[in-house]
Amino acid sequence: RDSRIAVRVNRRGERALVEVIDQGIGIAPEHLPHVFERFYKPGPQQAVYSGLGVGLYISREIVERHGGRIWAESEPGKGSTFFLELPLAQEVH
After folding, report:
1. Which pLDDT value is given to residue 2?
2. Rounded CA gap, 93 and 53, in Å?
């Protein structure tokens, strides 16, 4: 709750990479593959995480529909980094 959040934006060729880095409680390895699933809340730690479990799911849907990808890396007790990669330009058909 009281940790700093950093945002970095870099260009990778024809794609933009956005990193959102926090210094919060982190996500346990067994939960990390599931954080973008609809309604997912990590077991007994549910009280620690607010929300309904749809924010990251909706984020993934939006990013993928724009030709991008989203993922997270985390270490319990050291925080998490969420990555968002999108094309810089996309042709409309």
Report:
1. 73
2. 33
